[in-house]
Write a structure and sequence with these properties.
Blueprint (H helix, E strand, L loop, with lengths): L7 E6 L7 H13 L4 E4 L18 H12 L2 E5 L9 H10 L12 E8 L6 H13 L3 E2 L5 E4 L14 H32 L1
Parallel strand pairs: 1-2, 1-3, 3-4, 4-5, 4-6
The chain binds ligand FNR.
The site of ligand FNR has 13 residues, from α1.
Length: 197
């Protein structure tokens, strides 16, 4: 990451639904972030279910996903909540990213998890379930602030921008903290490399 450009963030949205509220959340967040973060969606709809045999002729969607993650400064998981857990779309993408063995595209990436649902705890359970997987894949997960909330249509306007002031302030603070988290993680990595070298 250069000191002048804003960090690039590979965004994995765990819903394939056209009208996904989690995709709407990403659009609102991108507008709010402006030039502080470059949110780059990663296409997950073409990923086949994980199958080791497919590495004989790797699917283009898998290679494209891994390339986008490897090139990014950070990763953002945006998960719906399915039966108190995260979506299988995200699990599948993470599994592909960890293979072939020794070529884990997630390694040392600063990461965050966010999500929304119409339910009372707004994906908190899904996010908790995902935290273990993200850390076992060696990502550097931001713990705070957590970003989950109960989706209500009137929090956003017809253009998909945040219209509720408290929500806007909350999302704005999250953008600032994630930007700092990415910078701090990059500094720590540079220091560690200097110590080792
Ligand atoms: C759900 N939903 C849901 N919501 C929640 O808050 N907690 C839950 O455990 C579940 N479980 C669940 C299981 C399955 C299989 C589905 C399809 C849905 C509702 C879910 O939050 C809602 O459909 C959201 O709109 C899904 O997010 P997207 O697709 O709109 O981004």
């Amino acid at each position: 990451m250069s000191s002048t450009s804003s960090p690039t963030v590979a965004v994995l949205i765990g819903s394939l639904r056209r009208d996904s509220i989690n995709r709407k959340l990403v659009h609102a967040l991108a507008a709010l972030a402006g030039d502080r973060l470059q949110l780059l969606p990663v296409a997950l709809d073409e990923l086949p279910m994980y199958n080791d045999d497919l590495w004989a002729d790797p699917p283009a969607a898998v290679l494209a996903m891994k390339a986008r993650v490897e090139a990014a400064d950070a990763v953002l998981f945006v998960t719906p909540e399915y039966n108190r857990s995260f979506s299988p779309v995200i699990k599948n993408a993470i599994d592909w990213g960890t293979r072939p063995y020794g070529q884990n595209c997630w390694e040392a990436k600063p990461a965050a998890i966010i999500g929304t649902s119409p339910g009372a705890i707004g994906t908190a359970a899904a996010q908790n379930a995902l935290k273990g997987l993200v850390t076992v894949c060696d990502m550097v997960l931001m713990g705070q602030p957590e970003l989950y909330f109960t989706w209500k249509p009137d929090l956003f306007d017809a253009q998909g921008q945040v219209s509720d002031e408290r929500t806007r302030v909350f999302l704005d603070k999250w953008v600032a903290r994630f930007s700092q988290w990415i910078a701090r993680t990059a500094e720590a990595r540079t220091d560690a490399q200097a110590d080792a070298g």
